Amino acid sequence: MTMDIREAYRRALDAFGAHVHQVRADQWRLPTACAGWDVHGMVDHLVGESLLAPQLLAGRQAAEAGELTEGDLLGDDPVKAFDVAAAAAMRAMEPADVLTRTVRLSFGDVSGAEYIAELFADTLIHTWDLARAIGGDERLDPELVEVCAEWFAGAEEGYRQAGVIAERPPLPEDTDPQTRLLAAWGRGG
Predict the structure, then answer these.
(1) Residues 106-154: pLDDT tens digits?
(2) Residue 49 CA to chain centroid, in angstroms?
(3) Which residues contact 75 (CB under 8 A, 6 or more apart)?
């Protein structure tokens, strides 16, 4: 991977946050391209991931830290909730050894680098989901699309077998990289 995965994650989190700041009061219950989630649920999910990141990167097991993501994490100020959680997640990425740490997830142990790659990819794809739901700019950073596509090529089948992404829709050969990445994640263009 040509870009430090922590930088890719930071940039994806910033892009998602920019859209969170654009959500109008009447848009929080709009459906998203991610089945079963409205805008509120999706932002709540990313806040939960951001709150878990410092705990998991510090060696806590996912099952032990699960209480951090129970209930509505957005409260009466969803934008502030996102900003606070995102800042905490980014601080957790700072230690020099974070990429080589062991992160204990519900499905097994992974390296810090792999865990951050998963956070990055989820955040990037949900950036598109959120933009589409609120009528925002759906263009993703092409460099981040490339990094995500490179990483996801090795993870796609596992995600599909786990049932967390839909089947790839058919695409023409000359499809642009962003549309190809979204299709890999089961999203239609």
Answers:
(1) 888 999 999 999 999 999 999 999 999 999 999 999 999 999 999 999 9
(2) 8
(3) 81
Give dist(CA 61, CA 159) in Å, integer: 21
Distance CA 52, CA 88 (A): 9
Count of other CB atoms within 10 angstroms of residue 169? 13
Tokens of 64: 């032990």
DSSP structure string for the chain: --S-HHHHHHHHHHHHHHHHTT--GGGTT-B-SSTT-BHHHHHHHHHHHHHHHHHHHTT--HHHHGGGG-S-SSTT-HHHHHHHHHHHHHHHT-STTGGGSEEEETTEEEEHHHHHHHHHHHHHHHHHHHHHHHT---PPPHHHHHHHHHHHTTTHHHHHHTTSSPPPPP--TT--HHHHHHHHTT---
Instruction: Report residue 121 as tokens.
Output: 């990819």
- Residue 175 has, within 13 A of its CA and on its CB side, a CA count of 15
Does this model's pTM top 0.85? yes
- CA 22 vs CA 9, 16, 136: distances in Å: 20, 10, 8
